[in-house]
Amino acid sequence: MRRFLALSRSAHGLLDIAMPGFVALLWLGRFPEPLVLALCLGAAMAGYTAIYALNDIMGARDDAEKVAGGISPGYAVEASAMRYPIAQKLISMKGALTWFCFWMAVAVVCIWFVNPAILAILLAAAVLEIAYVKLFKVTWTRTFISGLVKSAGPVAAVFAVIDQPPIAELALMLAWLMLWEIGGQNIPADWNDIAEDRRVGASTIPLVFGLPAAARVVLLLLTGVVVLSLMLPVMSPLQLGWPYRLAALTSGIVLLLAPAWRLMRTLDGRQAAHLFDRSSLYPLAMLVIITPQVLLP
After folding, report:
1. What CA dihedral angle connects 137, 141, 146 and 147, to 10 degrees?
2. How far is CA 60 from the centre of its chain?
3. Residue 99: which residues within 8 A CB-CB, separation 6 or more?
4. C-alpha torsion angle, residues 189, 290, 5, 38 (rounded to 10)
């Protein structure tokens, strides 16, 4: 089982689930009905498990090239000796496909009972994930696709609790999510894997533009995350005043801007891994910040 959990990056996936939770509470202003909440949690867990597995399934050939020359130690969230389990022949392709299909089916069933229209978002996330993997050696712009894939869960959470969310507010949330994923997750992850990626001819922002430019981009994007986070209350029925904004600002500074600044000063791969870890905690921090506002409005 540990091998399959490594395939789906279970530790990372559990942290990611906090983001749809935060978004649902932000938009709805209260906890959903117990049945809806249970179905949403099931859909989120199954969806993230399936999409992360799909990444390794579609990228098995490229991952095998990485593994053949040795791989760098992972960041703490994914520091497992079982990284790339298909490429390391810890899991067969048949087993991986079975695992993916099972969790995809669970996600489909849960979503069907919440809002069948959300199935389009799940399908789009899967298609975009395949495109992201296939562009590994083609273009660095695939990082934007990564932003869309990671945003799929929170966007689905909005449609699970709101029938017709305003497009402008949805766009604001999407921009916030994409900046966080690209600046706090995707670029630092590529930075951590830069030796293997260079060896196999990958096209990533750190490789194409160099480390100093990549660090500046990271800091710029994460500054945007913190600024936009202060605007998120406009989409909530809750009266989220300055205590909420101060907490959101503090979490953004501690988890995003401080490690991004250290990365820009040092250009050290260990700092990129540190940023990835801290950024992975950002959804959980936002969920913790908004929960008291929901319980004690």
Report:
1. 170
2. 20
3. 4, 7, 8, 53, 91
4. -150
Task: Determine the Cα–Cα distance for residues 188 and 260; give it in Å rounded to an integer.
Answer: 9
The burial of 118, by beta-carbon neighbours within 10 Å (0-12 exposed, 13-18 middle, 19 or more buried), is given as buried
Q: pLDDT category, 90, cuts 50, 70, 90?
A: confident
Supply the pTM of this predicted model: 0.92
Integer Cα distance of 258 and 9 in angstroms:
26
Q: For 260, which DSSP code?
A: H
Helix segments in the chain, DSSP class H: 2-7, 10-28, 34-58, 60-68, 93-114, 119-134, 142-161, 167-181, 187-192, 194-200, 205-209, 211-229, 242-252, 258-266, 269-280, 282-295
Residue 89 in tokens? 């022949």
User: 16 near 150, Cβ under 8 Å?
Assistant: yes
Give dist(CA 159, CA 140) in Å, integer: 31
> Residue written as tokens 């600002």?
249
Q: Which two tokens stand for residue 272?
A: 């990129």
What whole-number distance in Å separates Cα of residue 41 and Cα of residue 113?
Answer: 13
CA 151 – CA 19 distance, rounded (Å):
9
| pLDDT digits 0-9 by tens, 39-65 | 999 999 999 999 999 998 898 887 777
Cβ-in-10-Å burial (0-12, 13-18, 19+) of 201 comes to exposed
Contacts (Cβ under 8 Å, ≥6 apart) of 95: 4
